[in-house]
């Protein structure tokens, strides 16, 4: 009898506990919801983790610490300066009048030089930690927000060349992540969204970097060995594989392209980096809309590039340009890549074939207006100007940097009507076919139309835009009926 009563008591106790747990879960589930792990490897906010290389945090932890510890112990003058712009092609050989506008005392030059030397001393150890997938090739772009529609046009033009290179698209933080673009639109085109803050916020230093600085970060955090760093508004007009699989990249591991202007770096930069001051006629300023870099050959160059960009807004952008920052200024990342290679006496090739300006003639005053820059094949440039191959008469085009009018379908209707004034922006059909082998401008308008119509409601930047497809459709119909 006692055994039966004991069994009933145990059963009742189990039922009572079960009832309490059921009520507890029903009423207090909200206490636990925020801490529930998301399924399938996604975070609680539904954003999947970026496929970074293993070991990247172990690289970035000491690197971020070294960047902070090697901060120059002085500030640069804040007075506005602007070195004169001289067309590089107009300089006579040996022209060496380099403007010295940045008023920095020799004592402060010494402080900046000492900080530079402290970081350079750590580069060999840090470079050994840089993770990447050996032997891989790929394209890296840093873009988000309003640049996403522009990037989509560039990506579609890349795929028109027949290139199948993987693309990593870097965004600053999870707030820039766009689910439809990153999870539906990009994967079929072999492109992946990567969130920089996942690494930046995973180490104690938590460095704040933005704007132009993100390009160097994207280059460092990418998984590829051989990298084409590309601006979102830059259009490949041939397969980039051709450039990665040929000289001079195979031997040099670093290729940069020229701007229209002469270099205006301060003489003090060369004092700081312990280099002889080069004549301004030695090479043009850099146009960093595209860059080729091999990590297996240039890990050290990449580390110093990170240093120049982390301390860029405070020191190196001004040292390398002597120009005002902001819209239209030259105070950007563009000189930091080649400057790093030169500072370390590393191998590199700078394309010497001049950048070619494309544009249109204004209807109302017959003035020529720039609308894009053509950059040429380093393979042809190297063969013609270094190896002196007589069979190469002219370097073929490799990129068209459409940096004047961003190829944003939501804005191109207004630009076409009010700025370009209802005409083509890069020249006539015959001229296009002669230069690129096809009507490149028509293809670009077609991809802009595709983006505006098929992805009209996909971009957060277009949230308050109306009739995007209808408006860009009118432009295309006007041009190509």
- pLDDT < 50 stretches: 1-12, 14-40
> Strand order, biggest sheet?
3-2-1-4-9-6-10
Tell me the strand percentage band: 5-15%
The largest pleated sheet is described as: 7 strands, mixed
Characterize the quaternary organization of these chains.
single chain
Radius of gyration: 27 Å
| Overall morphology | globular
Count of discrete alpha- or pi-helical segments spanning 4 or more residues? 18
* Mean pLDDT level: 91
Structural class: alpha/beta
Span of the ends, CA to CA: 97 Å
Secondary structure tally: strands = 13
Question: Please, could you describe this protein's structure?
Answer:
- The chain is α/β, with parallel strands linked by helices and 481 residues long.
- Helix content is 42%, strand content 14%.
- The chain has helices at 2-33, 56-69, 106-127, 148-160, 179-185, 197-200, 213-221, 241-244, 249-252, 267-272, 295-310, 312-319, 336-343, 378-385, 409-420, 429-436, 440-454, 468-480, and strands at 133-142, 167-171, 191-195, 224-230, 234-236, 254-256, 258-262, 284-286, 290-294, 349-350, 356-361, 368-376, 397-401.
- A seven-stranded mixed beta sheet has the order 3-2-1-4-9-6-10. A four-stranded antiparallel beta sheet has the order 5-13-12-11. It has a two-stranded antiparallel sheet with strand order 7-8.
- α2 (56-69) packs antiparallel against α3 (106-127) and α3 packs antiparallel against α11.
- It is globular and about 65 Å long.
């Amino acid at each position: 009898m006692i055994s039966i009563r004991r069994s009933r008591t145990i059963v009742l106790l189990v039922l009572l506990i079960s009832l309490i747990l059921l009520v507890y879960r029903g009423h207090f589930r909200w206490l636990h919801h925020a801490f529930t792990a998301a399924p399938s490897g996604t975070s609680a906010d539904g954003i999947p983790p970026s496929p970074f290389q293993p070991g990247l945090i172990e690289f970035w932890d000491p690197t971020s610490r070294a960047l902070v510890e090697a901060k120059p112990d002085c500030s640069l003058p804040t007075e506005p300066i602007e070195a004169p712009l001289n067309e590089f092609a107009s300089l006579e050989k040996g022209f060496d009048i380099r403007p010295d506008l940045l008023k920095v005392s020799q004592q402060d030059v010494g402080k900046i030089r000492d900080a530079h030397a402290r970081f350079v001393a750590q580069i060999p150890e840090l470079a050994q930690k840089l993770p990447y997938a050996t032997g891989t090739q790929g394209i890296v772009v840093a873009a988000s927000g309003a640049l996403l529609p522009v990037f989509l046009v560039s990506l579609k033009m890349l795929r028109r060349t027949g290139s199948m290179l993987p693309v990593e698209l870097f965004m600053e933080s999870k707030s820039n992540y766009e689910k439809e673009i990153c999870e539906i639109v990009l994967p079929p085109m072999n492109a992946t969204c990567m969130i920089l803050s996942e690494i930046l916020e995973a180490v104690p230093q938590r460095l704040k970097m933005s704007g132009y600085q993100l390009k160097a970060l994207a280059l460092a955090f990418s998984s590829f060995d051989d990298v084409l760093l590309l601006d979102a508004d830059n259009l490949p007009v041939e397969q980039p594989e051709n450039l990665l699989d040929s000289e001079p990249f195979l031997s040099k591991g670093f290729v940069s392209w020229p701007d229209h202007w002469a270099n205006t770096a301060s003489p003090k930069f060369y004092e700081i980096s312990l280099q002889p001051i080069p004549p301004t006629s030695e090479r043009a300023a850099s146009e960093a809309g595209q860059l080729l870099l091999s990590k297996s050959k240039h890990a050290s160059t990449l580390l110093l590039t990170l240093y120049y960009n982390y301390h860029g807004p405070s020191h190196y952008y001004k040292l390398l340009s002597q120009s005002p920052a902001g819209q239209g200024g030259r105070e950007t990342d563009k000189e930091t890549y080649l400057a790093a290679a030169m500072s370390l006496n590393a191998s590199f090739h700078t394309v010497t074939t001049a950048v070619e300006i494309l544009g249109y003639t204004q209807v109302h005053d017959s003035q020529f207006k720039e609308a894009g820059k053509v950059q040429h094949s380093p393979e042809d440039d190297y063969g013609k100007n270094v190896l002196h191959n007589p069979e190469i008469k002219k370097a073929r085009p490799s990129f068209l940097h459409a940096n004047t009018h961003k190829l944003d379908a939501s804005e191109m209707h207004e630009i076409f009507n009010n700025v370009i004034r209802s005409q083509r922006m890069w020249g006539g059909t015959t001229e296009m076919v002669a230069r690129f082998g096809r009507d490149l401008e028509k293809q670009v308008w077609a991809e802009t139309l595709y983006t505006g119509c098929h992805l009209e409601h996909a971009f957060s930047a277009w949230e308050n835009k109306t009739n995007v497809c209808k408006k860009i459709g009118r432009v295309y119909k006007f041009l190509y009926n």
